[in-house]
Input
Amino acid sequence: MANVARSLTRFASSTPKASTFRTTANTTARHACIRQTLPQSSRRAYASGPSSSSSSTPYILGALALAAAGGGYFYFNNGGLTQLKEGSSKESRGVFTPTKEDYQKVYNLIASRLDEKDDYDDGSYGPVIVRLAWHCSGTYDKLTNTGGSNGATMRFAPEGDHGANAGLKAARDFLEPVKQQFPWITYSDLWTLAGVCAIQEMQGPVIPWRPGRTDRDVSMCTPDGRLPDGAKEQSHLRAIFGRMGFDDREIVALSGAHALGRCHTDRSGFDGPWSFSPTVVSNDYFRLLLSEKWNFRKWDGPKQYQDLASKSLMMLPTDMALIKDKEFKKHVERYAADNQAFFDEFREVLVKLFELGVPFQSKPEDRMSLKPSIE
Output
């Protein structure tokens, strides 16, 4: 450590104030030295445990001296606000503040992987990516200002092992190559951006989004029970969503995400898709709730409903609660009759969900709309 301090002192005293730094033939060696100086926890993967509580200030100072002297590469993974970026020829490019263009590149890679990786449920990882973004955000508690997308604490047990999060490792693993290619983006921003991408790539509305979330350690994991239980009904829905600050209209709008994906017996215990097009965002969920006849499914699994006509669709007790309750039902009817009304209000409520509890430095007007791969 004393050597690091002396290196910093010598660098500060010998460098002209107006000097510029260029890479040299020793760049590779300096990069290696930086990697040795920086603690490994500075690039923690999602499966790792909590970081050490000891101070890393001396390491950072040493790294700053070495990077400045040799044009090296390192970054602070703190919401992508101020970081050093290495160029394609290994040259230092100075302070890096990600722009909309940078986030569009992240989006494009996610979209490309969604298109290429068609070996998941119904031919798309899109629905499980939406579920990841939804579940990492839906833990927010407005009374304690805890939970929400800020932190990406599902990386750790026990939160990753909560029953409601069963199967989401598939989504986290799907996004890991994206994180490796763009290490400056936090997991918290990546997961919500991926949710936006999945919605848009599955023909849903464009969802305004902004960065600024930070990753947090295992001590910030939320308790089990904050996410909806599909086996319950309207009072449960109001309790869970009310804790986050959502009203009846917003609860119904968010429920429209059930047009996507399916349930699995080895995860939730339930089985089947909600709609005939589980990889397309639409108002089908609401239309089917109203137009189909639903009976209890006769099987050994938990209580769920089955459509009488095809016997291939299912609804959960929480879904049926939306048409049993008159206050919920009026919104179901609106969305079933008007897909654009659903899209407009779904967009609005997803923005709110993904931002719950996030201490943004930016303003709402700084949100960006990223371009879908197919218009």
